[in-house]
Amino acid sequence: MHSYEAFIRIIDSMASQHAKWLKVCNELPWRKDIASLNYILTSNVWQQDHNGYTHQDPGFIDHLANKKADIVRVYLPPDSNCLLSCYDHIIKTKNYINVIVASKHMRPQWLTMEEAKVHCAKGLGKWEFAARGGSKTRGYRYSGSNNIDDVAWYGGKYKYGPDEVGTKCPNELGLYDMSGNVWEMCEDWYSEYSSVPQTDPKGAKHGDMHVCRGGTYFLGEEGSLPANRLCLGQDTIGMVGLRLVLSEN
Predict the structure, then answer these.
(1) Side-chain half-sphere of 97: how many Cα atoms within 13 Å?
(2) Per-residue pLDDT tens for 213-245?
(3) CB neighbourhood size of 39 (10 A)
(4) How many CA within 13 A on the CB side of residue 143?
(5) To pair with 55 at 20 to 30 A between CA atoms, which of 29, 98, 149, 190?
(6) 63 neighbors 124 (Cβ within 8 angstroms)
(7) Is there a contact between 23 and 72 (Cβ–Cβ < 8 Å)?
(8) What angle do CA 98, 203, 240 make, to 5 degrees?
(9) Do the Cβ atoms of 215 and 157 come closer than 8 Å?
(10) Are the C-beta atoms of residues 116 and 85 closer than 8 Å to each other?
């Protein structure tokens, strides 16, 4: 199904009913898999150039994000090749509600098709790779420095609550707040690490809690290490956020 991001709110209740139906179906062993319900939304809320009063509403994502994560998936591809890779993935899935938010405007093309396939298939390991400085890493203990005070809001040392982004130093990739401030909730389900070395581990296939990385404002120094992780539910508020990466241009 294709729609403007704002207009899709008309079917909020129908999407909720389908999510409830999928939840029950997943609990019935005799119920066979069905094709996923796929939404493609355009007119991104942060890219409006006209009619902003009626179009600027990302509420459908918020509406679905409150459902169980073993049913709902939301994709925000950064370029056309990632969009194609995501779409190729979702049309092959079963028993999900998938949402892709895509721009209707001309956008920069960052990755080749092969690079996009690899990028979109990366799991939780991608976050730690970025936190450690990627290919530019200098092996710092925290994300961007061996001195945590240079790069992180942590341990309730400054105030009890998240602080303004970008007020500490960035890491080697120019990313801010990869240590401390707020947890990053990742798509991967929480599970114990495998005893066998892995590249870009994906975590468990199912679960009740998501992996969170990066630490937060009330944890101490150890909690802000790039390798540290925690499991949290979707209803966690106040200490979980996300990092957005934008081009300087």
Answers:
(1) 22
(2) 888 887 788 888 888 877 776 655 567 776 666
(3) 21
(4) 31
(5) 98
(6) no
(7) no
(8) 70
(9) no
(10) yes
Q: Phi and psi (nearest 5°) for 94?
A: -125, 145
Per-residue pLDDT tens over the stretch 52-85: 444 555 677 777 777 776 788 888 787 888 889 9
Q: What is the Cα–Cα distance from 237 to 230, expressed in whole angstroms?
A: 15
Contact status, residue 41 vs residue 3, Cβ threshold 8 Å: yes
Dihedral angle at the C-alpha atoms of 32, 35, 37, 38, nearest 10 degrees?
160
**Six-digit token string for 164:** 């303004």
CA-derived radius of gyration, the chain: 19
Q: What is the crossing angle of helices 113-121 and 80-90, to 10°?
A: 50
Q: Sign (positive/negative) of CA torsion 8, 13, 27, 29? A: negative
Q: Is 245 exposed, middle or buried (0-12, 13-18, 19+ CB in 10 A)?
A: exposed
> Within 13 Å, how many C-alpha atoms sit on residue 67's CB side?
24
At 222, the amino acid letter reads E
pLDDT for 119 beyond 60: yes
User: What gap in Å lies between CA 98 and CA 71, rounded to an integer?
Assistant: 8
CA–CA dist 20, 25 (Å, integer): 9
With tokens 């007119």, the residue in question is 43
DSSP 20-42: HHHHHHHT-TTPPP-BPEEEEEE
The sheet with strand 183-189 has its strands ordered as 229-232, 210-213, 183-189, 240-241
Q: Map tokens 């991967």 to a residue.
A: 188
Which tokens is 19 given?
Answer: 């999510």
